[in-house]
Each structure stands twice: as structure tokens, then as C-alpha cells.
Write a structure and sequence with these properties.
The protein is mainly alpha-helical. It folds into 3 domains: 88 residues, no CATH class; 179 residues, no CATH class; 165 residues, Orthogonal Bundle (Regulator of G-protein Signalling 4, domain 2), CATH 1.10.167. The chain has 19 helices and 6 strands. A two-stranded antiparallel ribbon has the order 1-2. The chain has a two-stranded antiparallel ribbon with strand order 3-4. Helix 2 packs antiparallel against helix 4, helix 2 packs parallel to helix 8 and helix 14 packs antiparallel against helix 18. The N terminus is likely disordered. InterPro entries: RGS_sf, RGS_subdomain_2. This is RGS domain-containing protein. Keywords: Membrane, Transmembrane, Transmembrane helix.
């Protein structure tokens, strides 16, 4: 191309001094700089802009190198003098390169002609995996909350004593573990099997029905034939001249081509999205009307709004001005996902970091305060009202087994005291009604005192409830402590067999739920310390 050729973008006019130097077909626009005066100098095979999915403004300069027209992200005005180019018929030779495909669930890039099923199902499977992870956390929070409530109900002090006599301690993890496995594995595996079944069915459908297979490329049915999906997508776009002489891309036509008729399998993502939106709505309602505290419930609301905007925008883009504005403003709803991403990062990283910094500053500020000591925490554990507040916090933090351990440990020590004073007569209601504080008399308590036979059922129930790793309310203690308790329990059990575990549980509560109690009631707790 000669250097005398130039391109004037200001008035969108085209001149060409040497039309003979133009190639008869264009595979690339590398280093092209020329003026066009005669429209007849453009190759005849570029004759229509009807299906060109992009527009160009006169203030934007076309890059000097493009592999094909599908990568030109511009809008075009004043284009009456530009000849029409048929993108579908003339870019086939160069279409196997970087192909931009905008589907209903996002954007992917293809590098070759592929069969439609592969293009369709591979993203669909991973999209479901993403959605599964999206709601899995919320579902686990709900069941964990219900599990902790169940523990408090079934493992209270009174019920623990009564059920220890008959060895009928309820195992709450029986139903929880089954649900946990279903939420984490079974649903996902079953869905993958379902997708594989549909994949094979479509494969057989394409082979068994050759007549229908012939129409796969043009029809809405997605099969095993190798097709140029870019052709299929481009055929759904039509440049319509709107107000101001601008060419408007009609999203609805492209969507109909991609999704097909309502009976087409391309409607499956929409159905899955509807089901997922219903799940999100249920989760939002559960979080709203229960005591479950979760800073990330907003992400469920965002997805519901995104799905409504996404689907409604396609169907009502040309019928309702509100949906048109909302659809374009939110970039087809994708902007809502971006906002949601910032929100999730803010609630998952920024807010916890700020809370940690604030808690660290408070600890330094009240470092020498008596309320920050573990001795003061032991006083709180001997106060029934404050123990109930700790229990409420423990339920929210999913560590209620620590409080239940402490309460039932106190009951065991009272039973030991009664037995040692020969007052063990089987009337446990009086033991339960007494204050949960002062778990044992420090002066007369001997941790090496042999375990009396009448106390064995209660210590056995306590072990299988709180110490055994498979117990209904197993506490988080070290493995060496568990092994020592197990060894001593079956060799030479003593009344202080659980003391080491008790110390670890108290330390765990002191570091986890006690700071939360201090933040909520620091002034009140200071008064309690001053006036015990």
C-alpha cells in the first residue's frame, strides 16, 4: 500500500488513489492505511452490514491490526457511505481464530469450530459448580445453627442427668452428618451424572436421527455436528437504523438464536437459574426471620436481582423502556455481579480485618484491666446469667458444645461431692436445681480420688458425649488429652479424669467467645467485678 493513501475519520469519507492496490479479499487488516473514493473498490464479496454486530463512532480510530471483524468493539455513526458487508459469508476463512462468544451465562472464547454440545455443556457444568459453592456456605450455616440449637435442647443439664441413667443420650449428628454429606457431595455428583446422561442422549439423538441431524447447524437443537458457532451468533444480530442515524444492535434476536425456542435445550440455563434464584430467595428469608447472623446474605439478594435483570432484559429489551434502561445501565446485569464481588470482598476481608484491628486496639487499651484476666472469666463461668449470655454467643459462633461441656462438668462434680458425703440417693432434680457455679469444693476436692461405681454411668455418658470424637457434642481438645482420658477411663478412672480437658475448653472459650462478651457488656461486667 502506498504512503499517499490516508484515511479521514473526521467526516467519515473514503478516498482511494490507487484502487488497484486493494486486495480482492481481506484476511487481515494489518498495517492498512488508505483513502477510498469509490465504493466499488471494496471487494464485491463484502456487500452487507446487516449482520455486523458492532457500531463505530466517528471519534474512535480503528486499530491498524485486527484478525477479523468480530473483535472490533466500536459503534459506528455516519455510515451511510460505507458499503454493506456480510460478515457471515466472508469471514469463514479467518473465523477459527480468536472468536468472541457471549452466551446467556457469561463470556467464553473459542479457537476452533467445535461441536455444539461441547460448547454448551462444559460451561454449564462449571456454572453449576459455581452456583453450588455460592449457596453451599449458606446452607451449611443454616444446618450448623439448627444443630447447635438441637444440642442445647437435648444436652441440657437436666436431660443429661436423666438420660445418663438410662443410657439414651441422643445423637444429633446422625441427621446432621447425612445432610452434610448430601449438601457437599451427593447433589453435585448427581447433577454431574444428570449432565452426562443428557450429553449421551443428545449424542445418540444426533446419530439415530440423521434427518434431524442435518438441520442441527441451522436449527435451535444443539448436537454433535461441528459448527461455526460464531456464524450462529452473528446470524442473530441485525443492525437496525435508529434515531440519529445510529445502528443499533438488537440483543433479543441474538438471544433467540442462542437460546432457541422454548422447547430447545438452550432454555436449560434459564430453568437452572430460576431454581437457583428460588434457593437464594429462601436463604434470604431464613436469614431475615431467624437469629442466624451472616454478613454475606446480601450476595443472595444481588444474584436474584441479577437474574431478573438478565432474563427480563432479553425478553423486554424492546418492549419496556425501564428494562431497556436497566439492561443497558447494568451492562446486561453484569455490573451487578461486579458490585457483588466488591461487596463480598468488603464483607469477607475488609470488615473482618477492621474488626481484628479494633479488637487488638481494645485489648491494648484494656490490657491491665482486671476484666481481661482468665480469673475474671472463671467468675463469669460461675454466674448462671452470664453463662446463658455466653451460650447465646456460642450458638452464633457454632461452639455451643464448650458451654454444654462446662455445665455438665459442673454437674459431674456435684455428683462426686454428693457421693463422697454418702448423700448419693438418686434424686438428681435437686442437683440440677442448684447453682451451676462452684463445680466442686476446692478444699476437699481430690482429682485422684477413685471413681465410685455408682458414678460410672454418668462419667461414661459424659465421655461419649463430649470427649469421643464421634460424640454428639465433641469438644475441640488435643489428641493427647483424648488418648490419656481413654486410657485412664479403662484402667484406673478417677474423679479428675476430665480436668485436663476442662482446662483446654476454658482456655478455648476465653480466647473465642469471652472477647465477644466483653465487647458487648464491658461496662456491666466491670460493675460486676467491682461489686461481686
Amino acid at each position: 500500500m502506498e504512503n499517499s493513501n490516508s484515511y479521514d475519520y473526521s467526516n467519515m469519507s473514503y478516498n482511494m488513489t490507487d484502487s488497484s492496490s486493494m486486495q480482492s479479499s481481506y484476511d487481515s487488516f494489518d498495517s492498512m492505511s488508505y483513502n477510498i473514493t469509490g465504493l466499488n473498490t471494496i471487494p464485491n464479496n463484502y456487500n452487507s452490514f446487516d449482520k455486523m454486530p458492532y457500531n463505530m463512532t466517528n471519534s474512535e480510530i480503528l486499530p491498524s491490526s485486527y484478525d477479523n471483524f468480530t473483535n472490533i468493539p466500536y459503534n459506528m455513526t455516519n455510515s451511510e457511505s460505507i458499503s454493506r458487508i456480510d460478515m457471515n459469508e466472508n469471514m469463514n476463512d479467518n473465523m477459527n481464530s480468536y472468536i468472541h462468544i457471549k452466551g446467556t451465562e457469561g463470556i467464553i472464547f473459542l479457537f476452533a469450530n467445535i461441536f455444539c454440545v461441547f460448547y454448551y455443556f462444559i460451561p454449564l457444568i462449571w456454572i453449576f459448580h459455581y452456583k453450588h459453592c455460592f449457596i453451599n456456605r449458606a446452607i451449611r450455616l443454616i444446618f450448623l445453627y439448627k444443630l447447635n440449637i438441637f444440642k442445647v435442647t437435648e444436652l441440657s443439664q437436666k436431660k443429661f442427668i436423666q438420660k445418663s441413667q438410662t443410657n439414651t443420650i441422643v445423637e444429633p449428628n446422625i441427621y446432621y452428618k447425612s445432610i452434610y454429606k448430601m449438601v457437599n457431595k451427593n447433589c453435585l455428583y448427581n447433577y454431574y451424572d444428570f449432565n452426562f446422561f443428557i450429553y449421551c442422549s443428545i449424542n445418540n439423538f444426533s446419530c439415530i436421527n440423521p434427518k434431524k441431524a442435518e438441520n442441527i447447524i441451522k436449527g435451535p437443537i444443539c448436537g454433535m455436528a461441528f459448527i461455526n458457532i460464531n456464524d450462529k451468533i452473528s446470524s442473530g444480530y441485525q443492525s437496525t437504523k435508529g434515531s440519529g442515524g445510529k445502528y443499533i444492535r438488537q440483543e433479543k434476536n441474538a438471544y433467540e438464536i442462542l437460546m432457541g425456542s422454548p422447547s430447545s435445550m438452550f432454555m436449560l440455563p434459564m430453568y437452572i437459574g430460576m431454581i437457583f434464584s428460588v434457593f437464594c430467595l429462601i436463604i434470604v428469608l431464613v436469614f431475615t426471620f431467624t437469629d442466624i447472623k451472616d454478613d454475606q446474605r446480601f450476595d443472595q439478594v444481588i444474584y436474584i436481582i441479577f437474574f431478573i435483570v438478565k432474563q427480563s432484559g432479553y425478553f423486554y429489551i424492546n418492549k419496556n423502556s425501564f428494562f431497556t434502561t436497566l439492561f443497558n445501565t447494568t451492562k446486561e446485569g453484569i455490573l451487578l455481579f461486579v458490585i457483588n464481588g466488591f461487596y463480598l470482598h468488603f464483607t469477607s476481608v475488609i470488615i473482618p480485618l477492621c474488626k481484628c484491628i479494633s479488637a487488638e486496639r481494645l485489648d491494648k487499651q484494656y490490657e491491665n484491666e482486671p476484666t481481661n484476666t482468665i480469673q475474671y472469666f472463671l467468675k463469669i463461668l460461675n454466674s448462671p446469667n452470664l453463662v446463658e449470655e455466653l451460650k447465646s454467643i456460642a450458638i452464633q459462633e457454632f461452639v455451643v458444645e464448650n458451654i454444654l461441656f462446662w455445665e455438665n462438668y459442673c454437674i459431674l462434680q456435684k455428683l462426686v461431692t454428693k457421693a463422697k458425703h454418702k448423700q448419693f440417693n438418686g434424686e438428681f432434680e435437686n442437683i440440677y436445681s442448684q447453682n451451676s457455679g462452684n463445680s466442686h469444693d476446692e478444699e476437699s476436692y481430690d482429682p485422684n480420688y477413685p471413681l465410685l461405681p455408682q458414678l460410672v454411668p454418668y462419667f461414661n455418658a459424659f465421655y461419649h458425649t463430649f470427649i469421643d470424637i464421634d460424640g454428639p457434642a465433641a469438644v475441640n481438645i488435643s489428641g493427647s488429652t483424648v488418648r490419656r482420658i481413654y486410657h485412664d477411663f479403662y484402667t484406673y478412672p478417677t474423679v479428675g479424669i476430665f480436668d485436663e480437658a476442662k482446662d483446654e475448653v476454658i482456655e478455648s472459650m476465653y480466647l473465642s467467645i469471652f472477647p465477644i462478651l466483653l465487647q458487648q457488656n464491658r461496662k456491666q461486667l466491670g460493675e460486676i467485678y467491682t461489686h461481686p
